[in-house]
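During the second half of the funding period, the structural biology subgroup turned its attention to how the target accommodates small molecules. The most pressing case was adenosine-5'-triphosphate, which had performed well in the primary screen but for which no bound structure existed. We therefore specified the complex as follows and requested a full 3D prediction, including the ligand pose.
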Amino acid sequence: MNHPIVRTEDLTKIYGQGSTAIRALDGVNLAIQPGEFVAVMGPSGCGKSTLLHLIGGLDRPTSGKVFLDGQDLTTLNDDAVTAIRRRKMGFVFQFFNLIPVLNALENTALPMILDGIRPAEARQRAQEWLERVGMGHRLTHHPSQLSGGEQQRVAIARALAADPALILADEPTGNLDSRSSEEIATLLRQISSTWERTILMVTHDARIAAYADRIVFLKDGKIVDETILEHRNGEQTEAVLDKMREIGD
Ligand SMILES: Nc1ncnc2c1ncn2[C@@H]1O[C@H](COP(=O)(O)OP(=O)(O)OP(=O)(O)O)[C@@H](O)[C@H]1O
């Protein structure tokens, strides 16, 4: 078996104290293999965002560990976690988070330039990834000149261009219509299958989750079920919906 890119060990997050304490995550053990595309689903408030934030080093657990590429993030100071986040993780958000005054190429190149990569090389890598995600014809467009689906493609190129070990996607289709959502899910599938990148995605949408290799179901902060998908092209949406009903939405 491969060495996992991500592994959590009894990951627990408690918000607040005493009688108002909320156990948002409760002893989560999850391993994600290189090149795997994993979706996390579960009812509202079950801890999906908390899990993504802890793995992404955006917040710290109450107890338990997060290993990224074998390194325990929970033992590092904030500066070291920030450096790992910048070099080893790519984030994709629901609202794209592109910089309005920069064009697609500049948005994609900026994180690399901030990380010390020469601007010419950063722009070249940015252009290559924009072409791969189907945005080669929109390099000089600004976010306001792009559709939601196109903006998300730019955000995905930006996340990939720095060659991260892990892509974390938080409701990447949450702000898109159903056609654009399926196109973005198809692109994420391709990023995993063709370019062998590792993806952890949180989603409410069973149709989108059905493009992953594996779906992990969370409830009340615990992993309660897991489904390995055979088709990975959205065809098994009904089976995912059945599982969600079984778990209780
Ligand atoms: N900063 C915080 N302070 C206190 N409680 C919090 C905080 N963040 C999250 N929670 C609580 O922790 C639990 C898990 O929240 P989380 O946002 O991880 O759930 P989720 O599954 O992502 O929900 P949704 O699907 O609605 O986005 C919820 O009960 C939430 O109210």
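Two results from this model are relevant to the next phase. The radius of gyration is 18 Å. The chain has a mean pLDDT of 94.
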